[in-house]
Design brief:
about 180 residues, mainly alpha, Rossmann fold, three-stranded parallel β-sheet
């Protein structure tokens, strides 16, 4: 999970979800990165300890090498509760060939399409089940999903194409 420490991003829910996943798959590790997502964040560290996940949750803090992080992941997770419009982190992870699991906030479902899983926000159990469903895929199936995710981003959300879509929209006369 990549994102600043903020109630909106739902780090607490992600950690609870991690506990559910860890119970079924003890070898799974969780990488969290973002501003104030480090060992100096006592609230976050206490939440990790409370859920007995110190050995499998890694708090990396703010990083600029996000492509390296995304490509190192098997699955990217967005656990946001609210307030997302068009979560670029999903596009970034998918562009790196990483399948995503996200809560249905903002355009998350639209971005992911059929290349990952989307669940209702604030449902740690369903988020865990979606993650587990991808963990259970064999490596070829997971890689295929990652390839589909990358293809979706490059075919639907490439910057030049987005600009053209805006130009078409504004020149159509539909703007009030």
């Amino acid at each position: 999970m990549v994102g600043r420490y903020d109630l909106q991003k739902n780090h607490k829910g992600f950690i609870k979800t991690g506990k559910i996943v860890h119970h079924k798959f003890p070898n799974v590790h969780f990488i969290l990165s973002g501003r104030d997502v480090s060992s100096t964040n006592i609230t976050l560290v206490n939440e990790v300890k409370k859920n007995s996940l110190e050995s499998v949750i890694h708090l990396l803090g703010y990083r600029e090498n996000l492509a390296d992080i995304y490509t190192a992941l098997n699955i990217y997770v967005s656990a946001s509760l609210f307030g997302e419009a068009f979560p670029l982190v999903l596009c970034e992870a998918m562009a790196c060939g990483t399948p995503c699991v996200a809560t249905d906030v903002g355009d998350s479902a639209y971005i992911i399409g059929n290349t990952g899983k989307v669940v209702s926000p604030n449902d740690d159990y369903m988020l865990a089940e979606a993650i587990i469903s991808l963990i259970k895929l064999d490596s070829d199936e997971l890689k295929k999903l990652g390839t589909l995710a990358r293809e979706r981003i490059t075919s639907q959300f490439e910057a030049g194409q987005v600009v053209r879509k805006y130009e078409e929209y504004f020149s159509s006369g539909l703007v009030l």
